[in-house]
Write a structure and sequence with these properties.
The protein is of the alpha/beta class. The protein has 19 helices and ten strands. Helix 6 packs across helix 7, helix 8 runs antiparallel to helix 12 and helix 14 packs parallel to helix 15. About 45% of the residues are buried.
Length: about 425
């Protein structure tokens, strides 16, 4: 039997890979339907051949909304033990994806340990790693240098890589002509913009896109086409720079699919509530139904310290209107590198958004979990409630911190609990509402 390098190539040949079979079983969908979605690109299964620990996940139309956890060291904070503790928490809490965004020094050892340990899919932004890996100043890096870093990540087993290939000369012209309140807030996009300005060259990932696809194809590393021009404040949302880049990403999507390379598209960013739904539909149209991976969107710019909430609000609307993959945002966004408590808060907020959207989208099993929680509450089955909760540990901690006088109830209502009252009334037994002397 012919071997196939990518999930897309296998699907187009009618071959159900073990990864497809795992996703179909997990998502409760028909394997033939899933193969058709992978074949046409509306579902991606990021699964690098070299990621042996991976428990494959599908991202895209008709599947549950996935969440990603960002972590990694910075120049100011570079304790890999802390980052690995965040990895363990993310896996424990069921995150489907982890992105290593380390941007300081030699990152390969941590990346390899992460890939060896993680059952979640792993993403990176190779551009972040270029300066430290190559030990060159940005302006001294060549196009081949950047491709070499991508190849290194692919060889290590990274499942998907964010590549900002859409910030080409046309996109830059739109940005320079129209301007922006916040300019470019994408770290990878800003580095490529600076490199293009310093060298006078075209974006190397755009100019050498075919060579890039050859690297990705060999390892089945999914390309996550990055949004260098994502809005960094709500005033920049849906502007010419963002839309111009999105048009370019749609063109690159088709080129990648022609090469049997799987694609995801990255999106905003910061965006007012009334723009989110239309942006999701526009991306799906311009990028031919490719899975959409969004950061937030954050629906206001004035909540530092609470941006896991502003992100969850936007993420719920985004996912309910077609986004397939939500990147978490923590309370520390815009303020510092998140600590482990921030990571937990970010995961929970994003998981809430993803689940709320899945109920709307009719994802198999989503509403059933809410119904099971309602049944457990009606029966005062606290253990079952903790089991079903998105963060059962916190639910148990809250409940246990204030024991009620009336068994089965909680200290919010005690004997005045509405559920208790109706249960007893239906059973035609004494309500026993008066406090005992």
């Amino acid at each position: 039997m012919k071997s196939f390098s990518t999930q897309m190539e296998a699907a187009r040949a009618g071959i159900a890979t073990p990864q497809m079979q795992r996703v179909a079983a997990r998502e409760q969908v028909d394997i033939d339907w899933l193969m058709s979605q992978v074949a046409k690109g509306s579902v991606a299964i990021p699964a690098n051949h070299n990621h042996q620990a991976l428990d494959a996940q599908g991202v895209g139309e008709g599947l549950s909304t996935k969440i990603n956890v960002n972590l990694g060291v910075s120049g100011d904070m570079h304790d890999y033990d802390i980052e690995m503790a965040k990895v363990e928490l993310a896996l424990k809490m069921g995150a489907e994806s982890i992105m290593d965004l380390s941007n300081c020094g030699k990152t390969a050892a941590f990346r390899k340990d992460l890939i060896a340990k993680s059952t979640a899919m792993i993403g990176t932004v190779p551009m972040y790693d270029a300066v430290g890996y190559l030990e060159k100043e940005l302006a001294d890096c060549t196009a081949q240098d950047f491709l070499d870093v991508v190849a290194r990540h692919a060889h290590d087993g990274v499942d998907f890589a964010t590549i900002h290939a859409g910030i080409n000369r046309r996109t830059v012209d739109a940005f320079m002509r129209e301007g922006r309140r916040m300019n470019i807030v994408s770290r990878g996009g800003s580095l490529l913009f600076a490199w293009m300005q310093l060298t006078g060259n075209e974006n190397p990932f755009f100019e050498h896109f075919d060579e890039l696809l050859d690297i990705l194809y060999e390892h089945d590393m999914t390309i996550s086409l990055g949004d260098a021009m994502r809005p960094g404040c709500i005033d920049d949302a849906s502007d010419s720079s963002q839309i111009c880049e999105l048009v370019e990403l749609g063109h690159l999507t088709k080129r990648a699919w022609d090469a049997n390379v799987q694609v995801m598209i990255e999106g905003p960013g910061h965006m007012a509530l009334d723009e989110i739904a239309s942006n999701m539909k526009m991306e799906k149209r311009l990028c031919h139904g490719a899975p959409f991976y969004v950061l937030g969107p954050l629906v206001t710019d004035i909540a530092p310290g609470y941006d896991h909430i502003t992100s969850a609000i936007g993420g719920t609307i985004a996912a309910a209107n077609g986004a397939d993959f939500l990147c978490y945002v923590t309370p520390a966004e815009h303020l510092r590198l998140p600590d482990i408590d921030d990571v937990r808060d970010g995961i929970v907020a994003t998981r809430i958004a993803a689940h709320a959207a899945d109920v709307v989208k009719g994802i198999p099993g989503a509403r059933a979990r809410d119904n099971m929680m309602a049944d457990a509450r009606k029966a005062f089955d606290w253990e079952r409630m903790f089991e079903l909760a998105i963060d059962g540990e916190k639910a148990r901690e809250y409940y246990s911190s204030a024991p009620p006088a009336e068994d089965g109830t909680c200290t919010m209502c005690g004997k005045m609990c509405a559920v208790r009252t109706v249960n007893k009334a239906l059973e035609q037994v004494d309500l026993d509402l008066l406090e005992k002397a």
